[in-house]
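Step 1: inspect the first sequence and its tokens.
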Amino acid sequence: MAENERDEFLNRERLCPSCRSTINILAVKCKFCGQDIGKPKEELRELSSEDLGGESIVHSAPSGTVMSAIEAFRAENLGSDGSDPRSDSDGGGGADVPQASIEVGPDGLPILNATSQGLNSLSESTFSARATVSKPPTSFKDRAVPIGLIIVGLIVIVFAGIKATTWVMDYLEAKNRVVVPDFINRYYEILANGGSAVEALEAAKEALDANNSDANQKIATIALTAIEKEVNDRLNTVNWSMATIGKAAGMAESALYAYPHTLTGNLEKKTKEENRLYSMTLKSITPDGKSATFTLLNGQPLDNVRKGDVIELRFDVVHISQISVILEDRLRKSRAGAAREVSFNLKNRNAH
């Protein structure tokens, strides 16, 4: 018997999922379209119509609850013994009341009337009745309270964020702040020990670079003013000479190197110009003593210089003789307060 069932199973057919042609149930490749279709998951199991490519038909049957309701309904209308309770109990003489006929469906179950169908729909429904509670509309006050709490919370969060940011910035600034060590300004110490003004200026600049404090700035200003005064004193001295002018120029140059500043830069330019003008030399005097020739520091000649002329917008020619020439400096003064005299002669051709 089992062998016959197996043979019957092996002869069954199914539809190709690709071309829908009929093929053997155990075929792994369609002989019509060549599509690989694979074996059934279980070769010996009883395949359903879905496995064979067909449609499944679902038959609904009343539940046990519905059947119980139907039986209760029949017992109520026909009696517990199946007789119609509406007929006479003594069985005599009265007119027979026709009993209600019950129609039976193809599945052997009675066909439900309207009442039974209602019971069936109640039985098959799975919903649960839930009471719906209507809420009264919220007032503006009820809405304003949570909104106000939200706004207050946002303000607190923003304020806390600002404070936290400020704290972090202060912390980072304090962490990265360079601690300036105490640096002793040696300006006055150098002057007290007989040091030069340029050395004292250099010390003041060094202290200012180490600590740009108000005190060091004040000392630096004092040092610059002292340098300016000493240079001008050497340029304006009544006992001037080319040596004093040279020393003034050297001092200004050293001050600019020690402390690059507008003041030291102007001093260096002024002393260079002073040294250029005073470095001119007398080249010759005409035999009649009427004119002379000078040579400037850069080698440029000044020919035919006569009494009353002005050299380089600075020196007035006040005297020319056969052996000497006398100039007066418009900018520098003599001991008496008059213009400084600058003399040249054929023996000492330089200014003196």
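Step 2: inspect the second sequence and its tokens, then contrast the two.
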Amino acid sequence: MASPMRGDDDLNVPDSDAKRGDIGHSAGGRPVYRGTVAQAAARLASADTLLLTCHRGPDGDSVGSLVALASLLRAQGKKATLYNPDPVPRRLKWLPLAKRFSRKLGKKARYEVTVIVDCADAKLLGSTFPAREVTGDLIVLDHHSSAKPFGDLYLCDPEAASAGVLIARIADQLGWPITDDAAIGLYVSLVSDTGSFSYANSNPEAFHLAASLVEGGVDPWTVHAMLNERATLERYKILCKALETLELKLDGKVAFMTITRKMVKEAGATWDDTTDLVNYSRALDGVECGVLFTPAKFGGVRVSMRSKGAVDCGRICEEQGGGGHRAAAGCVIRGNMAKARSRVESALAQALDIEQSGEQPPSEPGADREAPAQASGALSQDISNPSESKSEPSDPQAR
């Protein structure tokens, strides 16, 4: 399959940045350079051994992008290792190369380059991320507007509909043909982060790329069926319980939904079964923003937020220590459920310019106590993976 992208191959970076690129320093004090597609492509082409990874709790965009990149690199005779400490979600395990992900690296593993996709903050890699002597140079490929630059070469374009778009641009820059496996990965990346081309980020580039992938042999129905037509019975059981918790707030413009560990246990479900259930709260007529509250791994409450456009979820969650996109974001709030709901409702009231009634949420046992501090290496966005434990929710799509 021919390389699908045409035209623009670099980001809109001023000449001074494209030449020097120094945009600050990472948390470790190393300089961070804003890169172009051409620079990232050149470094990938020059390396023979590469480690490919993403944020903890991989999702459709990150897994699809990594699968695509791995396939492209291997087609060029390079050794590309797929890695993430957390398992690939059940609904994505059918993807080519998905079973090739390593959750641990060998003690003697060494790479010339490590590519990190779809990761807005180095903290989202977790405390077990390999040391510099293992990773080699770090290339970051991201598309979050709220991203915090890190790595040796940092390439971020918020106009890219998904991280997969950046992979396609690099393939085009190098003239690498899109393999069949890479085509499927890129398509999954696109449909995952555009809501099957329904979100505002579904721009012409995304449609052009999708069209070229379909022309090359990707079957949209097969991808859709594998992603969305294989739900477990337990998913519907936990959905029923979650819908019973729906509450309208702020003149009906906000909908709250809650899932507890007890509910998951009673449904015989796993947290993997709760993926994207927050979308049901947003789908209500008149609602501008839907919010799902679940327990967080290290204490506190995980907040998953979805907007129809009037609310910038990314900005609100970033103020709470999390982040994401305008239409989808997440964070973890210390304290109990009542405190989390109150804080989110206040933030949404301000965003929607609605005056609150002044009523305080009912107190809960321990309401005046903060949640325990997160364990060393844990993040404000709670990077636990839902597939790993029945009691650890995650919202990877919000990253």
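Step 3: confirm your contrast with the notes below.
The chain has 13 helices and 13 strands. Residues 5-20, 360-393 have pLDDT under 50 and may be disordered.
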